[in-house]
Write a structure and sequence with these properties.
By secondary structure, this protein is of the alpha/beta class. The protein has one domain: Rossmann fold, CATH 3.40.50. The protein is built from 10 helices and 7 strands. It has a 7-stranded parallel β-sheet with strand order 3-2-1-4-5-6-7, sandwiched between helices. Helix 1 packs parallel to helix 2. The longest helix is centred in the middle third of the chain and has 29 residues. The radius of gyration is 19 Å and the shape is globular. The termini are far apart.
């Protein structure tokens, strides 16, 4: 982390997974709003794009790079100790670190299932637990958990990712109620499909073979996912939403964002599940 001194009145935001995607853009957005941003990432060799954009925007002094691997307790503890020693407070935590495992349930190894949950769910819990004593002592704080439309609706071929995000949703509901007496706000941001690296990496890592009994379904899912990625909106929408949420006095729990996500939520609430299955199957098979 760099050694720039900060005004004690500055608000401090810790963001995980800032090397790309929503994390990178959120780090820039909160720095633009005057936050001192601790931009955490597993590998600081991937810092170049964040550093470049911060320099271009003239906000480098607001960005403080830090190594944090959310799957290693020692890394989390060391990072939190350094943040508290330097800044004395953490006003905002954005739990963004995550990735997507692709594949049909039967064909995804248990190692990959565990790796998915370790990063997207257990890592999020451990970072949150490390921050809570700080926020409780100051009787204030905002925790934003970056979930997904996949935390609201399970899509074929993304079972591990959906499971991890459904877990984040339930965890956040419980956590929000536990922390209300301490003045700490818990918020879920639920993006649909956006132009970020996570989906490309997830599709590249799909586990299957030519002899797979799921080959036809898998090909349909991949075609659909690629078509959706090509027309996905600008991910800055998510960073801008988070930028607004950190300043709200009484934010609601859930904040879905993205093209078509409201229709999907309403459809799940109102339509029979069998009808939803037919709609999804028709959407997949229609992309030849």
């Amino acid at each position: 982390m760099n050694q720039i001194q900060t005004d004690t009145k500055d608000r401090i935001a810790l963001i995980t997974g800032t090397s790309s995607g929503f994390g990178l853009l959120t780090a820039l957005k909160l720095a633009e709003q005057g936050y001192q941003v601790v931009a955490a990432m597993r590998d600081l060799q991937r810092k170049d794009e964040l550093v470049r954009q911060a320099e271009e925007a003239g906000i480098s002094s607001k960005i403080h790079l830090m190594t944090m691997d959310v799957t290693h307790s020692g890394s989390i503890a060391a990072a939190l100790s350094a943040i508290v020693d330097r800044f004395g407070t953490i006003d905002v935590l954005v739990n963004n670190a995550g990735f997507a495992v692709g594949g049909f349930v039967e064909e995804v190894s248990m190692e990959e299932w565990r790796r998915q949950m370790d990063t997207n769910f257990f890592g999020l819990i451990e970072v949150t637990k490390a921050v809570l004593p700080v926020m409780r002592s100051q009787k204030a704080g905002t925790i934003i958990n970056v979930s997904s439309v996949s935390g609201l609706f399970g899509f074929p071929g993304y079972g591990p990712y959906a499971a991890s995000k459904f877990a984040v949703e339930g965890f956040s509901e419980s956590l929000r109620q536990e922390l209300l007496p301490f003045g700490i706000k818990v918020i879920l941001v639920e993006p649909g499909s956006f132009r970020t690296p996570i989906w490309g990496k997830g599709m590249d890592g799909f586990q299957s073979s030519e002899a797979s009994p799921y080959k036809k379904q898998l090909d349909e899912v991949l075609r659909y996912s690629r078509r959706t990625a090509e027309t996905a909106p600008d991910p800055r929408q998510v960073a801008e939403l988070i930028g607004r949420l950190v300043n709200k006095r009484n934010p609601k729990l859930r904040h879905p964002v993205g093209k078509g996500i409201q229709s999907l939520i309403i459809g799940k609430m109102l339509l029979p599940w069998k009808m939803l299955e037919r709609i999804i199957a028709k959407s997949l098979s229609g992309l030849k």
